[in-house]
Amino acid sequence: xxxxxxxxxxxxxxxxxxxxxxxxxxxxxxxxxxxxxxxxxxxxxxxxxxxxxxxxxxxxxxxxxxxxxxxxxxxxxxxxxxxxxxxxxxxxxxxxxxxxxxxxxxxxxxxxxxxxxxxxxxxxxxxxxxxxxxxxxxxxxxxxxxxxxxxxxxxxxxxxxxxxxxxxxxxxxxxxxxxxxxxxxxxxxxx
Amino acid sequence: xxxxxxxxxxxxxxxxxxxxxxxxxxxxxxxxxxxxxxxxxxxxxxxxxxxxxxxxxxxxxxxxxxxxxxxxxxxxxxxxxxxxxxxxxxxxxx
Lengths: 191, 94
Hints:
The complex is a heterodimer of chains A (191) and B (94).
Chain A: H1 2-12, H2 24-34, H3 38-47, E1 49-53, E2 60-64, E3 71-74, E4 80-88, H4 94-107, H5 109-115, E5 117-119, H6 131-140, H7 145-160, H8 164-190
Antiparallel strand pairs in A: 1-2, 2-3, 3-4, 4-5
Chain B: H1 7-19, E1 21-28, E2 31-38, H2 42-57, E3 61-64, E4 73-75, E5 84-88, E6 91-93
Parallel strand pairs in B: 1-5
Antiparallel strand pairs in B: 1-2, 3-4, 3-5
């Protein structure tokens, strides 16, 4: 029953909305989400990135939730060509950084690319695929109902399921008991 | 003569008030700071124009945000008709 309550609670939990959000990070994300197209918003909440079309070159860029080395330039087949790194000179929250990058690529793309540094791969420790970036995304971005359901099921399954060693011990006892009872019924049947 | 506003005229006046509201959004480390002003208030408009000049003079780029999340418009000079102006700090490579 508590498991069901967990899942329902997680689904009911509302994400912070609009300017009333509490932390600067959440306010930045709210501002970003308010200025994305519905498609970009869905993509961002689901995949941790959204695609932007360059205002001058019509190149497709993929902006990942991260502070640095987070702008992927894609070719026509959707494969990575380069990774660009540019960001506002001031220290900003990640939502603002992404909105600044989106605005720059759409409205003054040549200037943004001129100041950007070019890389061939993401940084393992601080790039968009790093643990820090993933945890920051999970903490700041309002989760979709699918993600909340998956999290709730995962945490509930940990409550229901015993840890690995216990599970295998219980399963082993069950298999031995089943084998023993099967053999016993065979012996009884023969005699 | 009635002193009470009908619901329709009340709604209309509310809509009119909403139409005259403009906001300047400045990105900063606290998320953002919003400066709202009314286009019918000459003093507020002058203040907003001065803010625009100061921010763009110190390296911020001003963009008019679109309502649907699509590409906005780059602003080189103050436009009182723009509903939401976003100020993006100067960019650098990382």
